[in-house]
Sequence to fold (139 residues):
Amino acid sequence: MATHRTGRCACGSVNFAFEFDPTFIAICHCLDCKKASGGEAATWFGVPTTAFKITAGADKMKGFVYVADSGKKLTRNFCTECGARLYTSDLEGFPELTFIQIGSLDDPSGIRPVLEMFVKRRLDWQQPLDLPQFSDMPH
Ligand SMILES: [Zn+2]
Ligand SMILES: [Zn+2]
Fold:
């Protein structure tokens, strides 16, 4: 049985839950992840959209449609009360997945990155982890 996981925005207005054990958990250093998160990288994983639901505050959310570097569209979903990013959905490349960043989870234990990608964009002070390294997308 898949683990029941919950997450929320910074102010707690919007809550979500999913029943899924992610296996592809990436630390992504790409420019989109840098710009969208404001950090050096983003740690994220995909969950089947059918296994994902908003459990509180659906009326406090806004989605922003954006065309990524790849030329593909996606929607970034934010809390309108605190501005925290909740998840990314409707990716043209992966329409059946919702992408969640690990920091949104209430309890991220047991979810660990399995690779690093777009490491060509990694800043020089950031040490690689002992994980498979991909210059661009994994292949
Ligand atoms: Zn919030
Ligand atoms: Zn990225």
User: Anything to note?
Assistant: The two ends are 29 Å apart (CA to CA).
